[in-house]
Please model this.
Amino acid sequence: MHRALLALLLLVTIRPTPSGAPPIPPDSLPWPVGTFSIIAYDSVTGDIGGAVQSRVFSVGNGVLWAESGVGIATTQAIVDVSYGPQALALLRQGVPAAEVVQRVLAADPDPDPARWTKEGRQFAVIDARGTVATHTGPRASAWAGGRTCAAPHRCAAQGNILAGPGVVDSMIAAFERTPGRLHLRLVAALEAGQRAGGDTRGQQSAALLVVNVKRGCGIWLNNDVILRLQVDDHPEPIAELRRLAERPEAQRRHASCRVVP
Model:
């Protein structure tokens, strides 16, 4: 009973109140959207990270937000980029992931409801304790939705303008079955999502970001970022992200943080 309750607390999907309005066709929006992402926590190493792919230029410019000792957030779909720094500010105060999602959504003034409605936001958070929450608004461009990992894994995959729910299901399955370092498990999840159909418009850019629950785990002095990779414009961005992630340099971290599988 206790374990079942703990699993429920660790993995939370925020379900929006339906507005009755349909998902918004992406061609009617003033800016390009369409993304699939995964964020995750590795309880063995303390690493916290995320990876994303999209048929937009430089998807890494605004989707992934992470801070060592604090947590990670992804903000996408009919995006409000300020959700990222807002989430980190609340996580620094010790607010749990599910409450962070609820508070950021509640504080959104919805300044452009006709063209860029808050009902189309997609948002996920993992705090430094490894609790997970994900939200997809009812008007995010179809197919849109999110899934969380089964315990003991801690992750959330979400996307919009996807080939279908099999994209995020495949991402979760690949993350759960892939061994090894967190950044390679994240890339494996993107690869699986792409094989399942990915973004229906195709590929263009990808990004990856990894920090740790401990500060200073990056190389060099006073660097909290273990790994940050961006592929801004490429015909096969996930394949290029894989190439970069497998370089020996991508395995480095500060000597004080060498608790790795």
The helical segments are 2-10, 83-92, 97-107, 166-177, 182-195, 237-245.
